[in-house]
Amino acid sequence: MVLCPLSWAQENDAAVGRIMELIQKSRDQENLQDRIRLARTAFFLAESIEADSLVLVSGRILGGSYFIANQYDSSTFFTQATVTAANNMGDEDMAAKGYNNLGLIYTDLGNIPLAIENLQKSLEIKERRGDELGMASTYTNMGRAYVGGGSINQPEEALPYFKRAVEIRQKEDSEENMDRIPTDYVNLTDVYLQLDSLEKAFEYIQRSLEITEDANDKQNHVNSLTFLGVYYLKKEDYAAALDKLTLAQQIAEQIGHDNRLATINLYIAQSYMGINNFQAALRYARQANSQALQSEEAVESAEELSQIFEELGEIDSALYYQKLAYRLVDSALSEGVQKAILSLEMTVAQAENRRELEERDREIVKRKTQNLFLIITLALMVTLGAVLWNRYNIKRRTSDELSERNKEILAQKEEIESQRSILEDSNQQLEDAQKIIRKQNTELTNVNAQLEQKVRDRTADLKEANENLKIAIQDLDRFIYKTSHDIRGPLARLMGLCSLALLDVKDEKSVQYFSMLDITAKSLNTVLVRLITINEINNSKLNTEMVSFQKVRAEVEEGLDRLDGSKAVQLDWSLPEFEFESDYNLLLLIINNLVENGVKFRNTSPRHDSFVKVNIREEDTKLLIDVEDNGIGIDNEEKNKLHKMFTKSVENYEITGLGLYLVKLSVEKLQGSIQMVDNQEGVTCMRVTLPMQYSELRISV
After folding, report:
1. HEC states along 386-447?
2. 542: which DSSP letter?
3. CA 577 to CA 622: how far, in whole Å?
4. Which tens digit of pLDDT belongs to each residue from 673-684?
5. Do strands 544-547 and 580-583 pair parallel, antiparallel, or not at all (unpaired)?
6. CA distance 522 to 262
7. 247 exposed, middle or buried (CB, 10 Å; 0-12, 13-18, 19+)?
8. Which residues, at least 6 apart from 377, have a Cβ–Cβ distance to it below 8 Å?
9. Which of 613, 601, 569, 597 is nearest to 659 (CA)?
10. What letter would DSSP give residue 548?
11. Which of 56, 137, 143, 155 could potentially form a cystine with 161 if both were Cys, beta carbons 3.0 to 4.6 Å apart?
12. Cα→Cα distances 652→357, 505, 649, Å
């Protein structure tokens, strides 16, 4: 068979026009998810007709949009696609920008070797082209990779790159270039502070302050003041540090620079610790902790609070914030944290024992003092009696009185002797108790040492396991994207060829074969799309918004128009009037797949009126989504296999089971559940339950 060149050219022209329309719409979209959806459609259409220039434009939009949405795997995939397209076209400028963006993505992911590799490729192209300003930007990004890439922090490696960037920028006199110099000075200040080169750090921060103050650049001025405060903090000039940090805090609040406030308040707390003002330090550390919740500053602020409470002698509060710091560092270390907490509790118990012994010692001293006072009193009384006896020896009555007094004194002596005996017994008991306590303290010290060694061993094992798991997950993600990229391009061309062949071929047998080939190619394409979707769901973060169920309904019905047999099914909706806070794409995927299943597995008998009913409502602080259909039904023994990957519940339907697996994955991502509900005979009902109060879900995530 010979394809018609004119038909092929006409179809390509129509496809190019459609792709350019989608690209323009995606650029005009303010909603990030809508922009991604339109750009993705344009990208895969451009890839199917091998239009590298359109792949380049749509891929750049997708790479940047996914980077903003913190979906780094998708951002990596589409940015790499733009690099490939740029290289195919021989467009070195776009290739350099693509490699630079890949370097930024891998920096955020903490993969510094890959970040440096891509940034080096970008730098080589810019050097060859003589693009000095572009080289300066890449040098800055290479420096940031060494000091901002996850657990990697190598300021000595970053220093030459930042210095080279400043040297290039100082030679250029453009306004855009001068606006970037304060940031480069701040980068150099940060590196020199980490290297304890305080005089060098002070030199560059002074330069940055002069430029930002003259240009009224408040955002960079806040950063400059903050690092000046850190400089004084390192020099232990706490008054100067407080002065600069307080000014930085005021300006940050004025311009709404919220992402710096947590860091600034944490440095203020450290400054107050330096002057032993623990109450003020506590107040600012708590404020920093609340502002930096679930960010990297949260661990530092929690540890700062623990240290402050320990200085104040509030052991319980110190223990609480120490627990919080451990929990934020790594949830996988829960066993080690519990042992650390046990160690702290033992320390507290020891302190209580020492305090009790001190109180007993004070009681013994008090009793000894009372006994001494009593003896002195008795001695004075005896002396007085002797004087009276000598003076009134003649008088009988006085003698009798003195005799009685002597008897009383003797009785008191006996009582004192008795108390002394009791006191000696008490002293012996205290000595025995002290021996027992010393023995227990020794045992506790040994136990603490053993526990600390076990914690260290277990922590090392967990860290190694986590690193291996991260490497395995990254390899799996790369495999999925590589596979989808290598297969979907040829597959798209195969589907295009089938469509053209079905237009040109007249032979009935050939039409039958091409139709079967087209159906098989589309089925394989559906599987690839769903596998990619599964990977995106697993690796993406929730993007919440207020969802209108009317909008969901419209998009589901629009998709059903392209599904075979949808016209033969009566679709009924029962929707609430309120909006629901959730991830729009996940919620649409759940409802769309359940409705499509009802249409696909309808009863095709002409005497059967097929229907699908969607009922969404609130019940007991939960959102219930019921999707009912009177299709072919599901056997009881197959119910437990519905939500597993690559299962077939109906032998007459060539399906993979990925649809309901996607539903289950999306429901669990939203902290919900799905189940088949027993209903009237001949009707299948799938029920999805989601939390109504999304604020609780957000905390758990």
Report:
1. HHHHHHCCCCHHHHHHHHHHHHHHHHHHHHHHHHHHHHHHHHHHHHHHHHHHHHHHHHHHHH
2. P
3. 15
4. 998 887 777 788
5. antiparallel
6. 51
7. middle
8. none
9. 597
10. P
11. 143
12. 82, 30, 9
Task: Provide the residue count of the chain.
Answer: 701
Q: Which residues of 503-522 are buried (b: 16+ CB within 10 A; e: fewer)?
A: eeeeeeeeeeebeebbeebe
Find the helix packing angle between 92-109 and 52-68, rounded to 10°: 30
Residue in 345, 284, 297, 295 with CA at minimum distance from that of residue 320: 345
CB-based contacts of 306, cutoff 8 Å, min separation 6: 318, 319, 320, 321, 322, 325
Amino acid at 402: L
Most confident of 144-153, 496-505, 632-641: 496-505
Please state the φ and ψ torsions of residue 195, each to the nearest 5 degrees.
-90, 5
Evaluate if residue 652 carries a pLDDT over 90.
Answer: no
Which of 119-123, 190-194, 393-397, 600-604 shows the highest mean pLDDT?
119-123
Q: Tokens 């306004």 appear where?
A: 175
Q: What does the mean pLDDT of the chain come to?
A: 77
Both tokens of residue 476?
A: 């799996």
Nearest of 341, 345, 357 to residue 438 by alpha carbon: 357
Q: Which residues contact 643 (CB under 8 A, 6 or more apart)?
A: 660, 661, 663, 664, 674
pLDDT at 512 over 50: yes
Express each pLDDT in 661-677 by its tens digit: 889 988 988 889 998 88
For 191-210, write each residue's pLDDT tens digit.
Answer: 888 888 889 889 888 888 88
SS3 (DSSP) at 296: helix
Whether pLDDT at 6 is above 70: no
d(CA 531, CA 533): 5
Nearest in space to 690 (alpha carbons), one of 628, 627, 616? 616
